[in-house]
Design goal:
There is one protein chain. This protein is α+β, with helices and mostly antiparallel strands and 592 residues long. It folds into three domains: 82 residues, no CATH class; 168 residues, Chloramphenicol Acetyltransferase (2-Layer Sandwich); 229 residues, 2-Layer Sandwich (Chloramphenicol Acetyltransferase), CATH 3.30.559.30. 36% of the residues lie in helices and 17% in strands. Strands 8, 9, 10, 11, 12, 14 and 15 form a seven-stranded mixed beta sheet that branches.
Amino acid sequence: MLPEDNGITPESSLVELGIDSLVAVDMRSWFHNELDLDMPVLKILGGATVAAMVEDAFVRLSRELIPNFKPVAEVKADEAAPESDNKSVKSEESTDSKFSSVVMVSMDEGSQQGTATPPSSTGPIVDDEKDNLGAVKPMPTFVKTERMAYGASQFWFLTQYLEDPRHFNIQFCLALNGSLNNPRMERAVEELGQRHESFRTAYYANEERLNEPTQGVIATSQLRLETKKVTSETEVDQEAQAMQEYIFDIERGEVIRIVLLSLSPKSHFMIFGFHHIAIDGFGFNILMVELSALYQGQELPPIRSQYSDFAAKQRQAVENGSMADELKFWKTAFTKIPDPLPLFPMANVNSRRTMTHYEHEEGTEVKLDSKTVAQIKDLCRRNGSTKFHFFLAALKIFLFRFLDIEDVCIGLADANRNDTDTDLTMGYLLNLLPVKFERNAKEDFSAAIKEARDKSYAALAHSRLPFDVLLENLDVPRSSTNSPLFQVLMDYRQISAKLPLLDAQSWGRQLPGRTANDLILDISDVTGSEIRVNFKTQQYLYSRASTEILLKSFVQLVKTIASNSKVQLDKLPLFDKLEIKAAIDGGRGKSI
């Protein structure tokens, strides 16, 4: 994903090359699969150079892989031995002195179910628990049951509470160019559904265990490719809307649908619909890579840990106390729980209200100009940080400049793949990490981005503790009016412009799912060269116009920082001077 003019040297820092936590997981997997070496993600993200990573890996490699290598201490010991031994040592030393190791890393980048196949058009909302005759549908037979994973249980509880069960639908649409072999794609989809437990798992209250939230694995996947011919992109839009409105029967294992719409023999659209309980953003990257491989008839590596295995291991780790270090870290970081975030001045209401459904307003996505992107990259290189850290620091400053607060907590989404066993695990493994900042208006942006880097890395180093367990142990007050601990979330994704399936490209409006947060900063870093920025706000709090104002202000702040990072933070303008003048003139009744 690096541009051709950005060469890699042994002295290059990995973070300067744009490595983020998702790519670091891929690199860790490469070290494990190719060299049988455990390379922690934080070591990859910790600012090490390429040369330092190679040296560290080489020193820890199995001696069976490098039989001619001798550590310096052993060579010196041999040199002190009798002369007869030195000859053999010198002979080996002359060979070793010419030995060099070059590590070539090659990774495929992906970016960030019912007894019968559901129809491609859903129709009106009906009671999914009953069949056409009004009888209650029977529960499926399970080959394995497990207490629900912490992340899945969040969705399950909210599904019972919220008025609309479609709140946690997520959707992704692709445009496919080229001839498509339908039978091969049908087989690939069926194999994908059978391969991953998460796509054949029911999420339900187990009456035999006092209604304990449980995930039950069904023996045979019910996922099938739904196909339909269309005559226009308008029909594709209609099918995408129908998918958004679909109600998944998660209690009976219906959590995914894949619809293939064919406009012509060489023009197709594929709509993926999921309930969020069964997949996260990292999982979608896995899905795209594997679906492409299965379609091409390639053999896939075995899955070392299925979602039920992850759920059991996670709960065991919490209950046996092996997460004590993580808990100690978070208790130290949050000796004081931040107050809920004040509302922005342009809010629709004066105070929050009880939420029984979530709806988002979305701004018009802004693509940063190439000059600003280059300035951001240069600023990150000079400060040993990544674009993720840049936007986290910018968001912190934006909140402090707009709101009269002394501290702020921002939520981060972590893929939560902490060991190589979960690299191919499909399910909702994602964990939320709260990062708290205190106001320091006198610092410049270089200090702010380094603080963002250090705090986010510290959070990642203690990311195993499930967010729900963290809230419980911190005794965070729960409220039906706002999300706990933080009300602003930053969602940063590195994605590829083209996906590994018939030169597929994303198409139409994607549906990432809805949350209780006041504000979501959505950053899409496309192929390392294009950055798109957007805001999503809670609809009852902020209008579309207010969301656009906030987004425009944030982009103005980003451009100002990128062009001059030495500006004192409390001096950073929130709006363009010409726009301020035009607004003042308009308020005075002058023509604009």
